[in-house]
Amino acid sequence: MSRALDRIGTWIGWAFFADLANGLALTFGYMFSKSVTMQYPDKEKWLPYSRYRGHHFLKRDEEGEIKCVACELCARICPCYCIEVIPYEDEKGNRRPAKFEIDMARCLFCGLCEDACPADAIALGQQYEFSSFSSRDLVIGRDDLLGKPGKAMTGGGVVAARLNTEQDVLVETSEPQGYNWWRNIRRT
Amino acid sequence: MELVVALGLIVFKVALLIAILLLLPLPLTWLERKIAGRMQQRMGPMRVGWHGLLQPVADGVKLLTKEDHIPAEADRFLFKLAPILALAPPFVVFVAVPFGESVSVLGTEITLYVSNMNVALLFVFAVIGIEVYGVIFGGWAANSKYAVLGSLRTCAQMISYEIPMGFAVIGVVMLAQSMSLLDIVRAQANVWNIVYQPVGFFVFFVAGLAESQRIPFDLAEAEGDLGAGFHTEYSGIRFAFFMVSEYAIMLLTSVLAVILFFGGWNGVLVPLPPLVWFVLKVAFFVYVFIWFRFTFPRYRYDQLMAIGWKVLLPLSMANIIITGVAFL
Ligand code: SF4
Ligand code: SF4
């Protein structure tokens, strides 16, 4: 019985274009919802999560010395062969990298080097704006890597920013977290 | 002297009309992209000018400066003729379209139409039919399979939808006892035709959607399966011609819907100037066109034909018969 009623209901709905009207109502509703566009890079910028795999950085230990012991495991595991490590022995008799270069143009940001490192010396940080006009500039040396920003502490937010053509996109905000980008996603 | 003034007035009106029709696509494209963006939770153009207001100008400059490419195998004469054939009829049609009764400027009554033909409706349908040639020639001359397929589809679509469209307005003509668009609007001073002719309006609107080749009936230029349909091979200014023509037809369909079924410049409840009422109604229909475009998927080709011949045509016939019986 209810099946027959259903069918009649469907038929009436079909005759009066209820399905089309539903669709129209939906798009009309969406028209007044907030947009999810992130206006990068002129006005807003995304803060990556702490799990984000961005530009590598080399860590220092408590005494401020580079943690890397130049074991070359990262260079070995790297699927792109983009890390080059040349070890030397410093004054204290520790094995350290004399040369540590990553070719960012070839890196695929798999994070295997981070996993392989026995000394917890290398990791992929939060920086993601390092495009360049020359692939030669993308070979990053040891000292540059030491200065790169580390893992993000917060993340998943959008903050106000301004595009500066000389440098990066500058973050300009008092609140470090920004707003949660997911807030405007409609879940029905 | 009288003659000179009258002639000057006509020339001025025509020039104004052409200017408006040529410039309207600019804000319309912006509006369309903005509405599309909002419906998809995007922002639409934002970079050029305030909220992307100058985006259409930038696009126009881009189109004008692009290479005007003609394929090597193309029929050069037809290829050049097609955009003009597509562009001219929608402009010509507006000659017969009234936008209001008249306004008095400096003591002289100026009518808000170029000419009050007594067969205006026939004129509109006859001239707009020519537009199809632009599409067909364009597709044929380009010598590309996508373009030919697109124009073949258009050909069939136009033939099958012009008939119910023509039949749908017969009810209106019967009610007004006139084919003059001015008289049709005057006849709706009290009750709009939509009250008497809901079926007629439905058929007219659906057929109008198909005529102006908008989604859900944009098979002629189905991006998904035909590249860009009949204008696949067009670039630069000639492509812009097709775009302007498309918007002009969309505008024309809205204007006709308002004049034939929604009382033209007759307002309800709120006493606004007639011209404002007219513009508001047309704007509403233009919005509906855009709204439809970003809501519905495209019909399949056989469905399109089935709707045209099996639904719209019988409906419009029945509408005529019922209107006739009611008259008796
Ligand atoms: S992230 Fe992967 S590809 Fe990049 S340097 Fe590390 S191991 Fe090599
Ligand atoms: S970064 Fe880690 S894995 Fe790579 S050479 Fe240094 S200590 Fe070894």
UniProtKB/TrEMBL annotation, chain A:
Where [4Fe-4S] cluster 2 is bound, by residue? 78, 107, 110, 113
Q: Which PANTHER family has this protein been placed in?
A: NADH DEHYDROGENASE UBIQUINONE IRON-SULFUR PROTEIN 8, MITOCHONDRIAL, NADH-QUINONE OXIDOREDUCTASE SUBUNIT I 2
Q: What is this protein called?
A: NADH-quinone oxidoreductase subunit I
Give yes or no: UniProt keyword Oxidoreductase.
no
Topologically, how does it sit relative to the membrane? Peripheral membrane protein
- Its Enzyme Commission number(s) read 7.1.1.-
Swiss-Prot/TrEMBL cofactor(s): [4Fe-4S] cluster
The record lists [4Fe-4S] cluster 1 as bound by 68, 71, 74, 117
The UniProt similarity line reads: Belongs to the complex I 23 kDa subunit family.
Subcellular location field: Cell membrane
Q: Which PROSITE patterns match?
A: 4FE4S_FER_1, 4FE4S_FER_2
Instruction: Name the SUPFAM superfamilies on file.
Output: 4Fe-4S ferredoxins
**Tagged with keyword Transmembrane helix:** yes
What keywords are annotated for this sequence in UniProt?
A: 4Fe-4S, Cell membrane, Iron, Iron-sulfur, Membrane, Metal-binding, NAD, Quinone, Repeat, Translocase, Transmembrane, Transmembrane helix, Ubiquinone
The 4Fe-4S ferredoxin-type domain extends over 56-88, 98-127
From TrEMBL, chain B:
PROSITE patterns tied to this protein: COMPLEX1_ND1_1
- Kindly list the biological process annotations in GO that this record carries: aerobic respiration
Q: Which Pfam families match?
A: NADHdh (PF00146)
Localization (cell): Cell membrane; Membrane
User: What stretches pass through the bilayer?
Assistant: 6-31, 77-99, 119-142, 163-182, 194-210, 239-263, 275-294, 306-327
Q: Which reaction does it catalyse?
A: a quinone + NADH + 5 H(+)(in) = a quinol + NAD(+) + 4 H(+)(out)
* Gene Ontology terms, MF aspect: NADH dehydrogenase activity; oxidoreductase activity, acting on NAD(P)H, quinone or similar compound as acceptor; quinone binding
Membrane topology of the entry: Multi-pass membrane protein
How this chain assembles, per its entry, is: NDH-1 is composed of 14 different subunits. Subunits NuoA, H, J, K, L, M, N constitute the membrane sector of the complex.
Identify this protein by name. NADH-quinone oxidoreductase subunit H
Q: Give the gene symbol.
A: nuoH
